[in-house]
Amino acid sequence: MAETFDGGCDCGAVRYRLLAKPLFVHCCHCRWCQRESGSAFALNALIESDKLERIAGEPEMVRTPSESGYGQLFARCPACRVALWSHYAGAGLASAFVRVGTLDDPDRWPPDIHIFTRSKQPWVVIPEGANAVPGYYDREKSWPAESLARSQAIAPRIGAYHAALADLKRLVANGPVEGWPGREGDQRLLKGLAACRFEAGATYTEKQVSDLLRGWLAGFCAPGGLDHVTMRRELVDAGLLVRDKAGASYTVNPARIADFVADDARWLDPASVREAVRRERESRKRDRAG
């Protein structure tokens, strides 16, 4: 029987279990991790999400900005607010970065590598002989063969996520969206992502639906472009939103969303992707100027 590793938050409301040893353990010294942890670095154990089991409670998923602009999702205890793990934009929801300090026995998992050491705190002393790089690293050269083999099992999920991300980047690459996309694939992607803004099991009035869609669309659409009325109608016609017979309330149909957007792409936010594309362009301009 495979060895497992338990962990949880301070108050005990959320408990989890790793069903395998981590693929790799990062000690990240970047400024973003310093700020997010409130300390000198973040220590993350990377593992496949299907090997991360909830054994008590359910974390709240909090969308948080990231240096890339794509953002990340933090899993926090809804009571004590401790961050337990996160999902980065690189692999979507297929893998999780578990905060090693929340494991019951954190001593088991020292870092396999120190990354972004160019921005480490000057008083942090990395042990002599430790694997350390000034920025990020080459996974193929650093991970053990067993971890590389395990990663192949989630490669299709990551591929589907990246395909959706590429489509979304193309859609917002030239600035605010001016109107309803002409490509059917883009229409389906936006409908699926819009439906993900609604909480399963919750009931919404028409005003609440309109307000939610209006705010979401404003983040990446031009004024007078794709409007909330059109989107609401499209969601109803597609069966993503179900309206009661009186037309007074709406509920989301979670089972239908999978037909429109890959599971691991559901957390993508067009406004964040638009900002990330802008940052990437500015970075390339600076590189060319330098």
The biggest sheet, with number of strands, parallel, antiparallel or mixed sense and barrel status, is:
7 strands, mixed
Portion in strands: 15-25%
Q: In angstroms, what separates the terminal alpha carbons?
A: 55 Å
Number of helices: 9
The secondary-structure element order is: EEEHEEEEEEEHHHHEHHEEHH
Identify the CATH architecture of the largest domain: Beta Complex
Q: What is the structural class?
A: alpha+beta
CATH topology of the largest domain: Metal Binding Protein, Guanine Nucleotide Exchange Factor, Chain A
Helix content: 25-40%
* Widest sheet: strand ordering: 6-7-8-9-4-3-10
Report mean pLDDT, rounded to a whole number. 92
Radius of gyration: 21 Å
Number of domains: 2
User: Which CATH C-level class of the largest domain is it?
Assistant: Mainly Beta
The low-confidence parts are none
In total, the number of strands is 13
Global geometry: globular
Account of the 3D structure:
- This protein is α+β, with helices and mostly antiparallel strands and 290 residues long.
- The protein has 2 domains: 5-143, Metal Binding Protein, Guanine Nucleotide Exchange Factor, Chain A (Beta Complex); 157-289, no CATH class.
- It has 9 helices and 13 strands.
- It has helices at residues 31-37, 139-142, 145-151, 155-172, 184-195, 206-218, 228-237, 254-257, 270-289; strands at 5-8, 15-18, 24-28, 42-48, 52-56, 60-64, 72-76, 83-88, 95-99, 113-115, 204-205, 241-243, 249-252.
- It has a 7-stranded mixed β-sheet with strand order 6-7-8-9-4-3-10. A 3-stranded antiparallel β-sheet has the order 1-2-5, with no helix packed on it.
- A hairpin with a 6-residue loop joins strand 7 (72-76) and strand 8.
- Helix 6 (206-218) packs across helix 7 (228-237).
- The protein is globular, with a radius of gyration of 21 Å.
- It starts with a strand and ends with a helix.
